[in-house]
């Protein structure tokens, strides 16, 4: 959505300013009793490209709304010096419910439409004016035209049409009510308007969501060509790596800014973790050293008699004073140091994600099946056992009025890496469900080795249960509550205050992190990842990818994440699986028939 800064008059001169910025100083945003952002400072320069990252619910979208001026600061100051305007494309754009597509575009481009109307009015006043008025009205018309041309207003509709076409909305009926569009279509409508606006500052909230590869490529080229400033909230690591010059990390209501793009951000975060680990180790060693001093001097103190039998010439009194003066003084100093260390402990950095349980090879045994088999199928089952195959599918057909799938032959063994691609709705998730045994095919057979353990990261995050986070994790991992709390906190995915919140009350991102915690903690032989990058911060995704390199089981991944696909595709161990429309499964570009 586009917004014209309220502090600027339409007739203000358009001469360039040397330090045009949008800035927040000491900003706090509070919704009811919840503080979303606290004491934040952010300055956006005239050509800076800033990416905002952080967990879901951290306040990233709120930060964009503050920059756009649609959310007021509870405290602090917002300063805007952007004569070229601000364009804001939200994930859930606020559009009048009775608006048509044309109405919505006009509203989203309101500041340019206002400049257009102002230019028209100025021209009409000049045409009707007498000779004495024409000088002043001509100057007003010239200023209005300059502002309109600065936004390339005469080609606005052409850019809107091109943007809608590139974002998959080229055939959209402009008279159609906006409320009949899907959420993704409304978001793309707002994105097309923002990119067409030629605003000096672009604010984009997850712009790559719901875009295909062609749409993303066009978006990146369009942003490359943008001459003004850009602030984008995104989990798209390829977009971060290509466009961002600075990264702003939102956490616990505060902002931290990193330079040198996404690579610089990852390097700085790794350096921070090493520093925290060094500080924690120094604190732990100092604590152990002081405890040892207390123990050693207490032992020495106990070895000194408390009272001499004879105090000849004051000898017993001298020994008592020596005992108190040496060991007791060292004990007192060590205890004081211990109290300070325990009162101000160094934070323990989170452990990197690792699939900690050892992979347990499953002994050769009878395979389970989702369909009865005999004859050649039984022979195939025996062959699969000899090869230690975990899952084997033969002649699978699923087309009984629901999801469709045609899979002729597929084997999954320990250590396999399968990267599954295909258009939306083709049947990628259906393939995972069939292999996991959650869907039974109409024809064909799916065998799974008895006792194999399957872990899921599903595309749709569950709504959660009334159980607390700690109870849910303890039950799922069969651990005592104290042990479960320690294991969960060591992963660094949650704050201690979160442990006693109900899972149903957690944000979508937090529930996703619970799934990650379970996946890396519980033993598994097959890991099914269905859009694993959804709702996870980029830094956590990097850790998850690193952890998967050492995972000895089989990993089947469905993802649109370009960085994930690029890295996986570069590995010789990865097998490519494509699901075409209609559910036809092909391996490495050739049919499995």
Automatic annotation (TrEMBL):
Record domain ABC transporter: where: 19-277, 390-593
InterPro entries for this protein: AAA+_ATPase, ABC_transporter-like_ATP-bd, ABC_transporter-like_CS, ABCF, P-loop_NTPase
Key word Zinc present: no
PROSITE patterns reported for this sequence: ABC_TRANSPORTER_1 (PS00211), ABC_TRANSPORTER_2 (PS50893)
Record's keyword terms, sorted: ATP-binding, Nucleotide-binding, Repeat
GO molecular function terms attached to this record: ATP binding
Keyword Transcription among record annotations: no
Gene3D superfamilies: P-loop containing nucleotide triphosphate hydrolases
The organism's place on the tree of life at top rank: Bacteria
Protein name: ABC-F family ATP-binding cassette domain-containing protein
Organism of derivation: Dactylosporangium maewongense
Lineage: Bacteria, Bacillati, Actinomycetota, Actinomycetes, Micromonosporales
């Amino acid at each position: 959505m586009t917004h014209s800064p309220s502090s600027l008059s339409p007739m203000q001169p358009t001469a360039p300013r040397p330090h045009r910025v949008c800035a927040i100083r000491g900003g706090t945003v509070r919704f009811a009793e919840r503080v979303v952002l606290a004491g934040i400072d952010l300055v956006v320069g005239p050509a800076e490209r800033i990416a905002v990252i952080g967990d879901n619910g951290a306040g990233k979208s709120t930060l964009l709304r503050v920059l756009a001026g649609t959310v007021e600061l509870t405290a602090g100051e917002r300063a805007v010096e952007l004569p070229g305007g601000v364009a804001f494309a939200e994930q859930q754009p606020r559009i009048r419910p009775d608006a048509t597509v044309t109405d919505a575009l006009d509203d989203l481009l309101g500041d340019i439409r206002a400049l257009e109307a102002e230019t028209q009015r100025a021209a009409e006043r000049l045409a009707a004016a007498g000779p004495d008025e024409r000088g002043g009205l001509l100057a007003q018309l010239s200023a209005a035209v300059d502002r309109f041309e600065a936004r390339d207003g005469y080609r606005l509709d052409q850019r809107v049409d091109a943007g809608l076409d590139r974002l998959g909305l080229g055939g959209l009926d402009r008279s159609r009510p906006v409320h009949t569009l899907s959420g993704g279509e409304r978001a793309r409508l707002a994105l097309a308007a923002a990119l067409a606006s030629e605003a000096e500052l672009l604010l984009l909230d997850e712009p790559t969501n719901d875009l295909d590869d062609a749409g993303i490529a066009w978006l990146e080229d369009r942003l490359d060509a943008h001459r003004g400033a850009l602030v984008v909230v995104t989990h798209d690591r390829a977009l971060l790596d290509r466009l961002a010059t600075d990264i702003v990390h939102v956490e616990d209501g505060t902002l931290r800014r990193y330079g040198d793009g996404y690579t610089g951000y990852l390097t700085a975060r790794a350096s921070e973790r090493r520093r925290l680990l060094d500080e924690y180790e120094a604190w732990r060693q100092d604590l152990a050293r002081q405890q040892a001093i207390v123990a050693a001097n207490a032992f020495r103190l106990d070895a000194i008699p408390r009272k001499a039998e004879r105090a000849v010439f004051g000898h017993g009194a001298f020994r008592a004073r020596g005992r108190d003066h040496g060991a007791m003084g060292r004990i007192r100093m060590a205890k004081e140091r211990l109290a300070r260390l325990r009162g101000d402990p160094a934070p323990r950095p989170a452990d990197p994600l690792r699939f900690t349980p050892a992979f347990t090879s499953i002994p050769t045994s009878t395979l389970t099946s989702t369909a009865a088999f005999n004859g050649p199928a039984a022979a195939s089952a025996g062959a699969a056992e000899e090869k230690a195959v975990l899952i084997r599918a033969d002649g699978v057909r699923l087309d009984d009025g629901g999801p469709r799938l045609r899979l002729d032959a597929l084997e999954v063994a320990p250590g396999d890496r399968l990267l599954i691609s295909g258009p939306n709705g083709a049947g990628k998730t259906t393939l995972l469900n069939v292999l996991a045994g959650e869907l039974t095919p109409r024809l064909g057979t799916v065998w799974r080795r008895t006792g194999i353990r399957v872990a899921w990261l599903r595309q749709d995050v569950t709504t959660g249960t009334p159980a607390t986070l700690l109870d849910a994790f303890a039950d799922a991992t069969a651990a005592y509550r104290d042990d479960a709390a320690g294991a969960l906190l060591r992963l660094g995915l949650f704050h201690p205050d979160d442990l006693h919140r109900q899972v149903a009350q957690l944000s979508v991102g937090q529930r996703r992190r619970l799934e990650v915690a379970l996946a890396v903690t519980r033993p598994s032989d097959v890991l099914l990842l269905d859009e694993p990058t959804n709702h996870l911060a980029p830094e956590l995704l990097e850790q998850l990818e690193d952890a998967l390199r050492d995972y000895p089981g089989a990993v089947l991944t469905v993802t649109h994440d370009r960085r994930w696909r690029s890295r996986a595709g570069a590995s010789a161990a990865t097998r490519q699986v494509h699901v075409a429309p209609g559910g036809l499964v092909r391996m490495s570009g050739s049919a499995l028939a």
